[in-house]
Amino acid sequence: MPQISEFFGISIYMYYEDHNPPHFHAIYGDHKALIDIINGSVFKGYLPTKQIKLVLAWCEIHRDELMKNWEISKESGKLMIIEPLR
Questions:
Q1: pLDDT per residue over 35-64, tens digit each?
Q2: Which of 12, 57, 73, 78 is at a distance of 20 to 30 A from 1, taking alpha carbons?
Q3: 16 and 73 in contact (C-beta within 8 Å)?
Q4: How far, CA to CA in Å, does 41 sit from each of 38, 58, 59, 86?
Q5: Where are the beta strands (DSSP E) in 1-86?
């Protein structure tokens, strides 16, 4: 599972050939969540409130890049690194 970004202790990953809906995995410590790219929402798992707000803001900013990576992941191509929040 390639890491595509990391910020404020949150790691963002995307699996190759993963199931729909288009999503990414956010990990913070022992917490994990799956984030729907299109809706910008958590559909499985949990992150603390502060971290989920950061992840959802990042998702909003980088939605187009995330969707490009989603399409690349379907072909098992090399995923782009996406700029972190600063």
A1: 999 999 999 999 999 999 999 999 999 999
A2: 57
A3: yes
A4: 8, 12, 9, 21
A5: 3-7, 10-13, 23-28, 31-36, 41-45
